[in-house]
Amino acid sequence: MIYGIGTDICDVRRIRASLEKHGDRFAAKVLSEGEFKTWKARSARWPERGVRYLATRFSAKEAFSKAIGLGMRMPMTWRLCEIDKLPSGAPFVVLHGGLKEWFEARSLSAHISVTDETDYAASFCVVETADAAFAGKSGL
Ligand SMILES: CC(C)(COP(=O)(O)OP(=O)(O)OC[C@H]1O[C@@H](n2cnc3c(N)ncnc32)[C@H](O)[C@@H]1OP(=O)(O)O)[C@@H](O)C(=O)NCCC(=O)NCCS
């Protein structure tokens, strides 16, 4: 049963500008520990890949925050929501701490899809619930 859906479009140029202005501090605010390590490695090899990695994570987390109906409000935080990758390359959502507890208490599961083009990154997220009492209750 659908709990909620969320979408987001992110301007890659804004992410690049924030990185130029705030450096690692901006990435550390948006990325989980694991993501930050991946971002560092990618940025070291090719800075533009780091920018795009950060932009897709940014948009995926915003789309997820809308699908769960919280927006960027507790227990939803940037760093408690991680976007990982399956061996196939498909992204999936890994949650931590209070957000994970909140999510599991509602028997939720998430599906995330991300894309990027020259100047934009975009994401779409579907969150399901296995508990009929929570069906369609995102944002309520
Ligand atoms: C959801 C959120 C992360 C999106 O922020 P953004 O990147 O600046 O804006 P976007 O253009 O990507 O998305 C805006 C749309 O998100 C949707 N949205 C807003 N809050 C939402 C929520 N809690 N759940 C799902 N969708 C939400 C709305 O449709 C909104 O469009 P609208 O303003 O035309 O109604 C942000 O609005 C947020 O964190 N909201 C919760 C905290 C809050 O309300 N703060 C302000 C009051 S103190």
Automatic annotation (TrEMBL):
Gene3D superfamilies: 4'-phosphopantetheinyl transferase domain (3.90.470.20). It holds the Pfam family ACPS. It is found in: Cytoplasm. It comes from the Bacteria. Mg(2+) binds at residues 8, 62. InterPro entries: 4-PPantetheinyl_Trfase_dom (IPR008278), 4-PPantetheinyl_Trfase_dom_sf (IPR037143), ACPS (IPR002582), Ppantetheine-prot_Trfase_dom (IPR004568). Residues 4-125 form the 4'-phosphopantetheinyl transferase domain. Its EC number is 2.7.8.7. It catalyses: apo-[ACP] + CoA = holo-[ACP] + adenosine 3',5'-bisphosphate + H(+). SUPFAM superfamilies: 4'-phosphopantetheinyl transferase. HAMAP family: AcpS. Belongs to the P-Pant transferase superfamily. AcpS family. This is Holo-[acyl-carrier-protein] synthase. The gene is acpS.
